[in-house]
Amino acid sequence: MKIIKTKDYEMMSKKAAFIVASQIGLKKDSILGLATGGTPVGMYQELIRFYQEGMIDFENVTTFNLDEYYGLSGDDEQSYRYYMEENFFKDINLKPENIHIPDGMADDVSAECDRYNQLLEAEGGIDLQVLGIGRNGHIGFNEPDTEFKVGTHFVKLDDETIEANARFFDNPEDVPQTAISMGIKNIMQAKKVVLLANGLEKADAIKKTIEGSISPQVPASVLQLHPDVTFVLDEQAASKLDS
Ligand code: F6R
After folding, report:
1. I want to staple 98 with a disulfide (CB 3.0 to 4.6 A). Which of 62, 93, 185, 218 is the partner?
2. How many whole angstroms from 34 Cα to the centroid of ligand 1?
């Protein structure tokens, strides 16, 4: 496990972008696992800048997003597909056919989960998975009490997650209660993982993840068992760590 501590959000974003850019530099047809939320926005901006300056090329890259709200279509402004278009995809040269996000409108959720798992397997698995972390220690939408063995699945979101995500909605009652998420199994199968966290509100979750015992109550703690995981933290998120 590697821990990179940075001064602030901007430096966290730059370091994370360097890690993603090096991955693409070393393997131009990399398979990236991507996250949404507030945390990776700065990293996406840096990656767009690298692309515009000709430092990286997404032509042969494939992406798999971690999750999507259930019941939102891709053109809904609150959907994660919309977020990805707005914050990243519209400004780079990823091929649309190489972008994968669970379908939040699938009638048959279980078939959609199977399809996503099979696609991940057919593409040979993720080379580098980017993660954020919830205040409750979730990764993807694998909430506390999660089963470590499952792949992509249908989840009921925790009250704490619904409350945390309400900031992105005009009306808190509009926050979806369910989602489709890659499972811990998919995440642990990624060859490399980079987890980003910033702000004091993540400090407890980071401490439990890195220094606590491995437990389904803190889903991210399973990363202690991953052979190649890097935590990129700002000062505040790292502030409760012993060393
Ligand atoms: C998003 C995701 C979530 C977020 C987490 C942190 O695709 O899977 O696990 O990474 O909820 O969200 P922010 O960055 O908004 O604090």
Report:
1. 62
2. 10
Query: SS3 of 222, please?
Result: helix
Which tokens go with 214?
A: 């491995």
- Candidate list 100, 138, 153, 226, residue with the active-site label: 138
- The tens digit of pLDDT for each residue in 36-81 reads 999 999 999 999 999 999 999 999 999 999 999 999 999 999 999 9
Assigned architecture for domain 2-234: 3-Layer(aba) Sandwich (3.40)
Q: Give the count of alpha carbons within 13 A of 144, CB side only.
A: 13
Residue whose structure tokens are 């398979």: 31
pLDDT digits (tens, 9 = 90+) for 166-218: 988 988 888 999 999 999 999 999 999 999 999 999 999 999 999 999 999 99
Q: Ligand 1 — pocket residues by CB below 6 A?
A: 35-39, 66-67, 132-134, 138-141
**Centroid of ligand 1 to alpha carbon of 61 (angstroms):** 22
Q: How far apart are CA 77 and CA 86, in angstroms?
A: 9
What's the pTM value of the predicted model, to 2 decimals? 0.97
Residue owning the nearest CA to atom 12 of ligand 1: 37
**How far apart are the C-alpha atoms of 145 and 237, rounded to whole Å?**
23
